[in-house]
Amino acid sequence: MSSAGLVNITINGRQVQARPGQTVLQAAAEAGITIPALCNHPHLRPEGSCRVCVVEIEKQRSLQPACTFPVFEGMVVHTESEKAVESRRMALQMIFSERSHYCMFCPMSGSPQTTDCELQKLAYQYELDSWAYTPDYMKSWPVDASRKYFVMDHGRCILCRRCVRACAQIAANHTLGVYHRGARSMVCADDNVPFGESSCVSCGTCLQVCPTGALFDRRSVYMGHDAQTTRTPAVCAGCAVGCGIEAVIRDNHLLRIEGDWNAANCGLLCVTGRFETTEPRHDRILRPMVRRDGRFVETSWDEALNTVAARLRQYGLVAGLISPRMTSEALATFNIFCQEVLNTNEVALLYGDVPPSDLGARATLQDVAAADCIIVMGGDPLEEQKVVGYLVKRARDAEARVIVVNDRPTKLDRYAHVHLDLQDISHADQSPFERLRTTYHLRIEGVVKLKSAVEAARRPVVLYSAGLSTTVYAALRAMPDKVRFMPLIHGTNSAGAARLGLTARPVRGEALYLMAGDDMPPPDGSSPTAGRREIALPESRFTVVHAAWRSRWTEQADVVLPALTWTEKSGHFINMEGRTLEIKPLVSPPRSVQSDRETLLQLAVRMGCALSYQEITEIAGAVS
Amino acid sequence: MPGKPRIATDWLAGCAGCHMSLLDMDERLLDIAQAVELTSSPITDLKHPPEEGVDVGILEGCINNSATEQVARTMRARCRILVALGDCAVFGGVPTMRNSATCAQALRRAYVESESTVDGRVPDDPELARMQNARAVGQVVDVDINIPGCPPPPEAILYVLSELAAGRKPRLSGKLLDWH
What's the whole-model pTM score? Predict the structure, then answer.
């Protein structure tokens, strides 16, 4: 071994230095040498099942899979020797001999330049011009379309088990498995039930790693090859986790969202972020609308803004409500607009409780994934901040202790090693602050359990929600310094709003300006969850709704102004880690829709109290 | 080989698209005509490969009934080198879609149950070819050269014919190998 602790190996005649413990495939990849592989995926643990990555290693009796074989000092590797290539072609032919890989029937199929199928790409690369072993022409394979957003065609499955590993290692959901053995093996969910009836949470990680067309996205599968699209790194606006996404865009259309492997969420997304946000909708508000004789009439921006300005001036007290899905810049502008132009302090968030942020060092998403003890104090991350919930499950798979403290059942309960009733500590003994330490340390059995778990842990993380008693927060503050804290925040940018002093509280006013943006009210009749304790709209005589989509909010409005959606905005969000995330426009908005800030500025002018761009820019600067 | 290599083509269950691709060689057809002798093809006056045989036989389409099987066997018997041209000949192609049903089911669906049919019946004239499952040419007779593609690019056909004319075994790669 060299002095630097590196291993010297030779690949295709080139001297390469590798780190001990690396596989041949990893060492080669770092040196810029591509070894073809199918079952291997850089973000999954290697399995060595497809035999496509076999290489010739001198002094080894047989060819070895590069994806699982560790490097050793003096190793000499030939990746494209005649023997390796012949074996690789054989492996590919064997894969084509199973199932029904009729490329012409598959939407992933393309030319060597355009194909989205890794199997077809390799077949081209290794010059397969026909089948050596003709597959069974008469056999048909099941297609499972029981999930809403993506489909599994077993005929195109090559049993690489990437999906099975992604489900276990990345999503920590363990839904997928394989039943039968050998050539009869089939990917299955749970005890071989349809995917739609299984424990699958539709996070779509399996879809993202599938090398062939076996798993495909219903919406975007026929919308073009990857070669025709661009991929833009972006931030999901679904909740306060702020997952890194890759937006797949073609001709100003967002086709599909994938998880960004390089972001803190390491490729993982939830059903909302990956699928629900790209669901096609037909209720976009494209032009301003003014209610006349009980019906909405489309008008020009000028007319709508004049109407709003004139009517708002008539009322003494105007209330302002804004969705936490707005950027910090939009929140700041709205806040100033309400205070300076509408001259009101009745301005609040529609919903979005933010717990105190001064409990201790802030945890990152990586801290959660790498924690060895996780205390979930209130909240239900597996339901409300799903990716954080998945990371808790992942940490649990890695032997982390999970303690759930709550006074209601949560989805995380079945993964908890210890479940404590929140009553135990929220109402523990007397509330005076001075006695809390004693309470926390000694009195309650549950508190003792918490304390010992935290003391035994090296990397403890506490996830905590809003709405807990001051006693609980005080107890958390008293935890040792090694504990890291992550607030479970509802509403994408509630943290950004909190910095501006905007919170969810009831407001009153004769008139109401509701800045909904692309937010939607929860479906009618659904019981309000703790995550979305929406404040009731005040009884007002005149209502302006500034929204991207038609909803029961806009139905109540007197004037509706079109707003941008998250894919069209720029600005910043602050997530649960306390990080400021930059939002860039992914697509351009419809021509008739102007930016939300521009609308507010124009309205300010019409109300005789112009806000200068400079002012706004300064605010925005202060925010970010 | 003495003189120009002699070539015959024929088609089975195909759409003639591969022969169109052959014609898509445009002015390069003149070069090919210099290098080889086309004895017969569905797009020339002489349709059937000569009994004395040819050097290269080219088949488009898959085998899907007793008639196409006979055409394939005749070509195989009369040529030294058999080329499967296009996805249908190489893999079976679009006609294999009906293999998920039995022949009887497929015939009933087409002649009796189809929405536009009234009082339909499955044709049973003994002179008609008997339907079989759709298969690649290589499933029935030995194939020497495969040119996959739907259709194969004219350049691939040109390359294969030029290589054969020069007495070499062609090996498709890069842009010439495109069978999506």
Answer: 0.90
Quick one: pLDDT band at residue A438, thresholds 50, 70, 90?
Answer: very low
Please check whether residue B45 is in contact with residue B37, taking contact to mean a CB–CB distance below 8 angstroms. Answer: no
pLDDT at A616 over 80: no
User: Is the CB of residue B95 less than 8 Å away from at least one CB of chain A?
Assistant: no
Q: Which residue carries 């021509």 as its tokens? A: A591
Domain limits at B81? 6-96+132-176
**CA dist A615 to A332, A606, A621, Å?**
11, 17, 10
Region A106-113 average pLDDT: 93
Position A617 scores a pLDDT of 66
Q: How many whole angstroms from its chain centre is CA A125?
A: 35
Q: Where are the domains of chain A?
A: 7-97, 143-278, 289-354+494-623, 365-488
Any idea of the CA torsion for A13, A16, A18, A24, to the nearest 10 degrees?
-30
CATH architecture of A7-97: Roll (3.10)
Query: Is B39 part of a structural domain of the chain?
Result: yes
Number of domains in chain B: 1
Q: B63, B90, B91, B142: best mutation site toward chain A, by most A Cβ within 10 Å?
A: B91
A137 and B97 in contact by Cβ < 8 A?
Answer: no
B18, pLDDT greater than 70: yes
pLDDT digits (tens, 9 = 90+) for A215-230: 999 999 999 999 999 9
Residue A282: what pLDDT? 85
How far is the alpha carbon of A365 from chain B, nearest alpha carbon, in Å? 42
Residues of A in contact with B95 (CB under 8 A): none
Residues of B in contact with A105 (CB under 8 A): 97
Give how far the C-alpha of residue A122 lies from the chain's centroid of Cα atoms, to the nearest Å.
31
DSSP assignment, residue A589? P
What is the CATH topology of the domain spanning A143-278?
A: Alpha-Beta Plaits (3.30.70)
What would the pLDDT profile of A550-590 be if each residue is shown by its tens digit? 998 999 999 999 999 999 999 999 999 999 999 999 999 99
CB B158 within 8 A of CB B96: no
Q: Does domain A289-354+494-623 have CATH number 3.40.50.740?
A: yes
The rounded mean pLDDT for chain A is: 89
The whole-chain average pLDDT of chain B stands at 93
* CATH placement of domain A365-488: 3.40.228.10
ipTM summary value: 0.91
Under a CB-based contact definition with an 8 Å cutoff, are residues A391 and A369 in contact? yes
Question: Do the beta carbons of residue B160 and residue B28 sit within 8 Å?
Answer: no
> Does A179 contact chain B (CB < 8 Å)?
no
Dihedral sign, CA of A157, A161, A164, A165? negative
Tokens matching residue A282? 């037909």
